[in-house]
Design goal:
heterodimer; A: 8 helices; about 0% strand; B: mainly beta; five-stranded mixed β-sheet; 21 strands
Chain lengths: ~220, ~250
């Protein structure tokens, strides 16, 4: 019985997935890809996944959605995803990171009691004094952790220059200065963005929107609806 | 495109390098018509797109098709071919007085120098030392980094900057000999000579890629001479100390 239920559940899930795949538009696929990459970044903490996420998101072409309701929904989902990526970036960026503090490749072990000095990186088992060996092992582990943290922060800091610009470009090209559009962006920013500086910057963007009601882009709803 | 090298019109680029492309009059539909890489956005019509080079050497043709016309640009993608080392500026030699030993702090530069490898990372594959003379047995058959199995590889180091001498990760590498016991070398000249080396294999990848490539093997060598000189060599750079030099650190 248990097997039957499990089998039925799998079947329903498979049908659901297939049905979803059948009706999924190209834009929805890119959006899904962006979400998947963002989740992968959270799990792996591999910065490249975050980059892949926004490259996928950038492929969403709102102007190809001809149904105004679908286009508006897609635009909202993209806004949430762009802001979520920014929030993810801010969450993992270390504000105290100093790129000039490059970790050493290896750690120098202490001399042995028998008068041998081993070079950096030597096996801790070669160190005959237990206390010195323990301290060396600890230093090696700490350095390895530093190397990994350093690597992640270097790449995230590069994304820090690129990702916000692209998110802002999306908002500028997709949202107008209409009250409805501004309200949607404001609500999303307030809900998703935690970093006060980032939040203020994005909200300032709203105040600097042109007042003619046009975002100047072919996918601006004001022009399409 | 990376701002170093300074030539903003270069079409020879490093693996993984990004280039912003614009077309006038725009917008246009963009496509990679020969070779491989990534365009972003890859859909729709745009006046500007970003090309990201793949992680293999080759030629890539990108075509922009606008209203009634099209144009192309061809890029040559360059893989890193090898690396050399210099002593890190502002650092000193390491020496323990009275014993034949020598160390210097090096940083590596990756070549060729006319492209920027800022999207590359490097790491070291572990290797076992080969020692003769006074270094054997104390320094023979020892792992260089003692990296954990199964990979037996160090962590990845991202590139930090490009200069006229190549692209560097700025990672300080301590090229230090250590020393064998006095019973193996003697306490004064003539010292028992000896040498040891590791056949070092460094690897590279474009960040986030699972394609890992080996650089040619480079030896890290240390040698003690009968007069008490100790030489340490790696990546084309050599430093030495005499056993009776004053103690010093990096």
């Amino acid at each position: 019985m248990r097997t039957l239920i499990s089998g039925a559940a799998v079947l329903v899930l498979a049908v659901s997935v297939l049905a979803k795949a059948g009706i999924m538009t190209r834009n929805e696929k890119y959006l899904e890809e962006a979400r998947g990459r963002a989740k992968a970044f959270e799990v792996e903490q591999e910065p490249e996944r975050l980059r892949e996420a926004y490259l996928a998101l950038e492929n969403v072409a709102l102007e190809t959605e001809h149904d105004p309701k679908i286009r508006t929904r897609m635009r909202s989902e993209c806004l949430v995803e762009w802001l979520s990526l920014l929030q993810l970036l801010d969450r993992f960026l270390d504000p105290n990171f100093d790129p000039r503090e490059v970790p050493s490749k290896l750690v120098q072990p202490p001399p042995t009691k028998s008068g041998v000095m081993y070079p950096p990186g030597a096996d801790p088992a070669l160190i005959d004094d237990p206390k010195a060996r323990a301290e060396y092992e600890k230093a090696v582990q700490a350095n390895r952790a530093r190397i990994e943290r350093y690597r992640v922060q270097v790449h995230l800091n590069r994304l820090k220059e690129d990702l916000p610009q692209r998110a802002i470009a999306f908002i500028r090209s997709s949202y107008t200065s209409s009250q409805r559009d501004q309200e949607e962006v404001r609500n999303a920013v307030n809900k998703i963005i935690k970093n006060p500086g980032r939040k203020a910057g994005l909200l300032d963007l709203l105040h600097s929107r042109p007042s003619n009601g046009s975002a100047g882009a072919p996918n601006a709803p004001a022009r399409c609806e | 495109m990376a701002t170093s090298p300074a030539n903003r019109a270069r079409t020879r680029i490093g693996v993984g390098e990004e280039v912003d492309l614009t077309v006038s009059p725009g917008p246009a539909t963009w496509a990679i018509t020969a070779g491989s890489g990534q365009l972003s956005p890859s859909t729709g019509s745009h006046a500007k797109v970003r090309f990201t080079a793949d992680d293999a050497a080759g030629t890539v043709t990108i075509t922009a098709t606008g209203s009634g016309c099209s144009c192309t640009i061809i890029f040559t993608i360059v893989e890193p071919s090898g690396w050399t080392m210099i002593q890190q500026p502002g650092t000193h030699l390491k020496h323990v007085a009275g014993r034949p030993n020598c160390g210097w702090k090096g940083i590596a530069f990756f070549h060729p120098d006319d492209v920027n490898f800022y999207r590359m990372e490097d790491r070291e594959l572990d290797s076992l030392s080969v020692a003769t003379g006074c270094y054997n047995p104390s320094h023979h058959g020892k792992y260089h980094g003692n990296y954990a199995p199964p990979d037996r590889a160090s962590g990845w180091f991202p590139m930090t900057r490009h200069t006229a001498n190549g692209t560097t990760d700025d990672g300080p590498d301590e090229i230090y000999s250590g020393y064998p016991p006095t019973s193996a070398t003697g306490a004064a000249p003539p010292f028992t000579a000896g040498k040891y080396y590791w056949p070092i294999t460094w690897q590279w990848r474009v960040v986030g890629s699972s394609n890992i490539h080996n650089f040619p093997v480079v030896r890290q060598e240390h040698e003690i001479f009968p007069d008490g000189k100790c030489e340490s060599r790696k990546g084309g750079h050599t430093e030495h100390c005499m056993y009776n030099d004053a103690a010093s650190s990096y």
